[in-house]
Specification:
The protein is mostly helical. The chain has helices spanning 2-13, 15-24, 28-49, 59-86, 93-103, 110-120, 132-151, 155-192. The protein is globular and about 65 Å long. The termini are far apart.
Amino acid sequence: MIRSLRLVDDFLEEPEALAGQLRASPRPLAAVGGFLVAGLSIFLAQAISGRAVFFGVSSFWLAVVCLWQLGVGAAMSALVHLSAEMMGGKGRALALFSLFGLSDLAWTTVLPITLLWLAAFPGQAWASGLLTMPVFYGVLRLRARSVSHAYGLPISKAWTAVGAPYLAMGLMVGALFSVAIWGVFRQLLKLAA
């Protein structure tokens, strides 16, 4: 427990030294713990604000959210590793996974933010979802800093390496949505004719 807290402290206070330390000996269990704690915080924030209505509040959905957070973290670590390597950086994917797990601990701030929001504005649970945007930006910023330190890239290239997978996913979702809209529009034209 103390070693984990020291690891988080090093991540916040001396990120460059920690990146070098994790390059030599990655800590994947700390990353898994970070992703799972982040998933727990997101789940609890959604449950308290009442936004988990579609899935409900159960131990099964808690496990799904935590495993989703872990799976997406692992996939993003791999994609960002490939992006950073293509940009000329040298690093290890497992070290990046460890750093991303520590970066995801920023999601633990979602729960207290949601509690404070609901205490101040009891009937406005819908807006608590908007408060996750600054946290998401904070996670991305910590990830970019991690890529910069772990791969020796300038911060602009690190932001590009982190942002490229998100941009690709956004473009893919946008393309699928456009195809779906076009299909509906086409069917409406056939019905009208």
